């Protein structure tokens, strides 16, 4: 059996290898405005988890792309996680993913049988989601990378965005935090096998159930929690229009992440998240390793949904009915984009 450790080929694992919030903002400042197009319902002028383009009066396409370096050492698991992560952007918009294209960067010196397993993992995740993989593209690259370009469908008047929440809404999170810290320990070779299995299972779980539940009940806004961490993605949700209170003890976290963070196991992406978001955050009531988890760069994280308080219980029940678990982690209020972390 091949013992190749894929994470040793990666400068940073999973979504932690993304450009940071501040870096992307600097890049987008130099991007010229796109010509007006009435078909584009959501594009670069108001960035979200995916773009939305109208095709007809009752049909729009949801389009997204996501790929990253090895997040775990098993090639099948990496392929599955990368595919699930890419599909999540469509689920966050309330869309139904339909088709996908493979995106591959692979060094010729690395066994192509491993790449076959990566593609197999991605294909199986897509099959579970009811998505057809219809093609792809590959390049020779010293550093392996894999992901998908995904197309989904949604009604032009019913897609969900990240910045349309109202003060008073509850915040519901559908997956626990700690993936960035744990996968960094995988890269360092210090993660126990049981912890690896736990992380792989969480990252490899589709956000379809949470998406279907939020569509059944109706939410005000949603986003998936990935490379910018819980606080970074929440700051985007606030859009400078509201404040948020996060009840730390209600935030689901893989417990081992706290110990790893206390020992200094932190991905670079998490540090960049803190640098970008800390001026907006009051987190004085929690410890340093607890703070680290809230900034942690997630890969294939859960959906963060803003729901009217009168419908929160309905959302949790709808998720449970589909085998998903939701946690109410905080509430939105009037304000200007600040986040306060409280401990009850």
Looking at CATH, which topology of the largest domain would you report?
Answer: Phosphoribosyl-aminoimidazole Synthetase, Chain A, domain 2
Q: Label the overall shape.
A: globular
Query: How does the helix and strand content classify structurally?
Result: alpha+beta
Return the string of H and E elements: HEEEHEHEEEHHHEHEHHEHEHEE
Share of helix, binned: 25-40%
Strand arrangement in the largest pleated sheet: 8-11-7-12-9-13-10
How far is it from the N-terminal to the C-terminal residue, by CA? 50 Å
Mean pLDDT: 94
Provide the CATH superfamily of the largest domain.
PurM-like C-terminal domain
Described by its quaternary structure, the protein is: single chain
Contiguous helical run count: 11
């Amino acid at each position: 059996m091949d013992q190749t450790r894929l994470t040793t080929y990666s400068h940073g694992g999973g979504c932690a290898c993304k450009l940071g919030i501040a870096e992307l903002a600097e890049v987008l400042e130099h991007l010229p405005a796109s010509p007006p197009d009435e078909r584009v319902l959501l594009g670069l002028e108001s960035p979200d988890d995916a773009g939305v383009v109208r095709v007809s009066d009752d049909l729009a396409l949801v389009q997204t792309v996501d790929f990253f370096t090895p997040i775990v050492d098993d090639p099948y698991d990496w392929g599955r996680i990368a595919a699930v992560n890419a599909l999540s952007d469509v689920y966050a918009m309330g869309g139904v993913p339909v088709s996908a294209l493979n995106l591959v960067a692979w060094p010729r010196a690395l066994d192509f049988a491993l790449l076959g397993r990566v593609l197999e993992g991605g294909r199986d995740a897509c099959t579970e989601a009811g998505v057809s993989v219809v093609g792809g593209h590959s390049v020779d690259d010293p550093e392996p990378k894999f992901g998908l370009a995904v197309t989904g469908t949604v009604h032009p008047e019913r897609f969900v965005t990240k910045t349309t929440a109202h003060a008073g809404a509850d915040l519901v999170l559908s997956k626990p935090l700690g993936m960035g810290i744990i996968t960094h320990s995988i890269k360092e070779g210090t993660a126990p096998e049981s912890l690896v299995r736990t992380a792989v299972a969480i990252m490899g779980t589709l956000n379809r159930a949470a998406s279907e539940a939020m569509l059944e009940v109706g939410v005000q806004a949603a986003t998936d929690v990935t490379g910018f961490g819980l606080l970074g993605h929440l700051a985007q949700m606030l859009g400078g229009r509201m404040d948020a209170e996060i009840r730390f003890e209600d935030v689901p976290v893989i417990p081992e992440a706290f110990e790893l963070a206390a020992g200094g196991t932190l991905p670079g992406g998490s540090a960049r998240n803190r640098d970008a978001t800390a001026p907006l955050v009051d987190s004085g009531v929690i410890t340093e390793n607890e703070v680290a988890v809230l900034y942690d760069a997630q890969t294939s994280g859960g959906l963060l949904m803003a729901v009217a308080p009168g419908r929160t219980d309905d959302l949790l029940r709808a998720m449970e009915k589909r085998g998903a678990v939701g946690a109410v982690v905080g509430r939105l209020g009037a304000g200007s984009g600040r986040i306060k972390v409280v401990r009850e």
